[in-house]
Amino acid sequence: MEVADAFDAIELPGHFTDVLYLTDQGSMPAEIKRLLKLRKLSFRVLPIDRFSEVRDGLDAIGTAVIEVKDSTAAHQRLIRIIETLEKEHIGVILLRGRAAVPVKSFSLAPSSASFSIGGTAQTVSVNELWSRISVNLAYRKGNSDLAVKPAIPPRQVHSIYRNKLAEQLNMTKVLADNLAEQLRLAGLVQQDFLPARLPNSDEVQWATIFVPAEWVSGDIYDVVRIDEQHIGFYVADVVGHGMPAALLTIFLKQALVTRETVGNNYRVFSPAEVVKNLNVRMAAQKLSGYQFATCCYCLLNTKTLQLTYARAGHPYPILIRRGRPPEQLEVRGSLLGIFEHAQYVQQTVQLQPGDKLLLYSDGGESFIGKFDDQGGFNFSDEFGRVTDLSIIEMTDALNARAQNQELAPSEVDDITMVGLEILGGAPSC
User: pTM of the predicted model, to two decimals?
Assistant: First the structure.
């Protein structure tokens, strides 16, 4: 059954909106409106600055199409909107205006306009746009808790499928078993890309957590000694789940470069340079789906205990210092893969013996803390009870919590953490 036929065969509750179209252009292009009407999809057009009107009703949204100009002033607002939609498992298609490129559509009248996806030079026809919308809707409806019912009479459905049911069930079981085995093996390959050993020493103790939501993960991390006095480490999180997200994590692993060699010398990249270069490489791939990612990269000088960090749309690092409440280390930074020319900044903090630092993906927010209505971040009581433990005991406790939490299928997310603790001894200058 083709995707279009599949949508004709199900009927969602009347309040469900297939496509939320957010725009700063005032209206939806006629070609897209005609496409949605032809495919019998419900849609709502909303100015992007009025996104708050639908924030409480995202459970009834199928997919989101966002049309914006490449405006620096709108970067942070767009990032917050995309992050909010991703947390609700709503696929996002980012349109960056029209390109005057003749595009022939086979299902609609020929059009003289196409649309640029995700800030790249790539253009897509309305047919290609429909393909992306249909994939997002299929994933959303397939994983939604919403009840669906046949749009044709049950008796007719039974008549169509009764002779093929046993054959389809057997085929489905074989395919499911094969897919499960392939995913299991893919998960093992992905974990081979994680560090086999951590650079523990008398000065620094490391600990990590890696809990995929499925066989494979949309998260990746690394802790690597760059030279005798620098250790680079990061957590990256691809928007989405499953195999497409996992494949992109391998790209991120290979594309993140921590230093350059010139002749017989080398230069260690600053965190801002690392994240900027990673964003450029990711944007240059012109990825067709699951094209956004977050990352927090840190550089530790083991001689001076100075920590420099930069982030790209990722949860802030957490500094835990004796006698003080946990503190978020805030620094600005856009998501990876959206704005090719995005600029990233970095901050530096002086660590001292007894300090602990925690990087984590957004799957850990459920038991670390959450933002309140005023935009402040409140750490959970559960997290507060483990901050006095050593970094190994602390991550063990958080790992146990991650393994035992009871969540609805739509709420399950990858959980990754990288923690360090500065042990005894004074830093040398």
Answer: 0.65
The pLDDT of residue 72 is 54
The single-letter code of the amino acid at 424 is: G
Most confident of 22-26, 76-80, 175-179, 187-191: 22-26
In which band, very low, low, confident or very high, does the pLDDT at 210 lie, cut at 50, 70 and 90? very high
Instruction: List pLDDT tens digits, range 95-104.
Output: 876 655 544 4
Taking CA atoms, 149 is separated from 41, 308, 400, 412, in Å, by 16, 54, 39, 25
Tokens of 369: 């803390």
Of how many residues is the chain composed? 429
Longest dimension (CA), the chain: 80
> 99: how many CB neighbours lie within 10 A of its CB?
14
Please name the helix (run of DSSP H) or strand (run of DSSP E) that holds residue 358, with its range, or none.
strand 356-360
Write phi, then psi, for 98 (nearest 5 degrees).
-95, 150
**CATH code of the domain occupying 193-422:** 3.60.40.10
Q: What are the helix (H) ranges across 113-196? A: 126-142, 154-161, 165-192
- For the chain, how big is the Rg over CA atoms in Å? 24
Average of per-residue pLDDT values in the chain:
80
Of 3.30.390.50, 3.10.300.10, 3.40.50.2300, 3.30.360.10, the CATH number of 3-157 is 3.40.50.2300
Residue 324 structure tokens: 């003080």
Numbered ranges of CATH 3.60.40.10 in the chain: 193-422
Residues of each domain in the chain carrying CATH 3.40.50.2300 = 3-157
